[in-house]
Design a protein that fits this description.
- The chain has 289 residues and is an alpha/beta fold.
- It is built from 10 helices and 12 strands.
- The strands form 4 sheets. It has a 6-stranded parallel β-sheet with strand order 2-1-3-4-5-10, sandwiched between helices.
- The N and C termini lie far apart (39 Å).
- The chain binds NADP nicotinamide-adenine-dinucleotide phosphate (NAP).
- The site of NADP nicotinamide-adenine-dinucleotide phosphate has 29 residues, from helix 1, helix 4 and strand 4.
């Protein structure tokens, strides 16, 4: 297959290029053009005529999205629409990457995993812009797959975030006498290597719709931190705190675990537990300075 990948030098994009290397790839970075520019993405689609377009391009600094609402919607909503229009024009399949942050805005926080069929309810601008983008994809491109994932870590580090949580925690643990980390936001950390491998399987099968893909299990930022330090052999004490004790510009979901109903219905294996994924990541990444 010929596969065009936007954001190909990003955290997920980098692992997608590896997982899909048996295919003919057309990698696009922001240096090639802006996903919010319809003429650009349409021209590339018409030039290369890929069988599949994978859109990972996103503005994902969650707090910055609150201040830069227009940019968030331009990249995450208009950009998704443009990718969908380009895919529809050449009758390609569009695989669009979305997020657990389309959930979590209900008055009473959820305590059971969100299913693919559940109604989105974002609690911040990033989530709202991604939700709007997902809506465009569903309306515009007949042959689409929306892959929702959560808290990504990968060897390339999130370009948009200047690294990832694992790297940040290891760095801070080496610099500070103790870490204070939020313990009332629960999610499923996901290794981009595992996510990319599953996307490689999903594009081979007949499936259109929303699919949740995360590593198995769930934890809070505090629990994630304790496991990172344990696996990295660092003894820095970690103190659990509440979201109220760590004010951030954007509100975060208290619970955004994604259920894997679609994966099960398709007979696809679950991804490994997040702890195993973390171990794989740390082994490959080597000591983080
Ligand atoms: N990271 C997470 O925790 C997380 C969690 C759930 C879902 N997701 C979703 O997963 C996808 C990939 O995330 P990631 O962690 O791989 O992020 P990433 O490393 O920041 O990759 C995003 C890529 O998009 C590019 N990009 C940004 N604005 C663009 C634009 N206007 N036009 C074209 N390209 C643009 C970025 O380039 P520059 O960096 O050079 O601007 C980067 O290469 C995103 O759709 C995100 O919403 C991420």
């Amino acid at each position: 297959m010929k596969i065009l990948i936007t954001g190909s030098d990003g955290q997920l994009g980098t692992d997608l290029c590896i997982a899909l290397k048996k295919h003919e790839l057309v990698p696009l970075t922001i240096g090639d053009g802006d996903i919010a520019d319809l003429a650009f993405i349409k021209a590339r689609a018409l030039k290369h005529r890929p069988d599949v377009i994978i859109n990972t391009a996103s503005f994902l600094r969650v707090d910055d999205c609150e201040d830069q609402r227009e940019l968030a919607f331009r990249v995450n909503s208009l950009g998704a629409r443009n990718a969908a229009l380009a895919a529809q024009e050449i009758k390609a399949k569009l695989v669009h990457i979305s997020t657990d942050y389309v959930f979590g805005g209900e008055a009473v926080p959820r305590s059971t995993p969100y299913l693919e069929e559940d109604k989105p309810s974002p609690c911040n601008v990033y989530g709202a812009s991604k939700q709007e983008g997902d809506g465009h994809v569903r309306r515009v491109c007949r042959n689409h797959v929306i892959v929702r994932s959560s808290t990504l870590f990968g060897t390339a580090g999130a370009m948009g975030k200047g690294g990832n949580f694992v790297e940040t925690i290891i760095k801070l643990a080496k610099e500070r006498p103790e870490l204070r980390v939020v313990n009332d936001q629960v999610f499923s950390p996901t290794y981009t290597h595992d996510l990319a491998a599953k996307i490689a399987q999903i594009i081979e099968i007949e499936f259109s719709g929303i699919i949740h893909v995360t590593n198995s299990g769930a934890c809070s930022w505090y629990e994630f931190t304790v496991e990172i330090l344990k696996q990295a052999g660092l003894k820095t004490p970690v103190v659990p705190i509440t979201s109220d004790q760590f004010p951030q510009k954007a509100k975060r979901p208290r619970y955004s675990v994604l259920g894997h109903g679609a994966l099960q219905r398709l007979g696809l294996d679950d991804l490994p537990p997040w702890q195993e994924a973390l171990a794989d990541y740390l082994k490959l990444k080597g000591p983080i300075q």
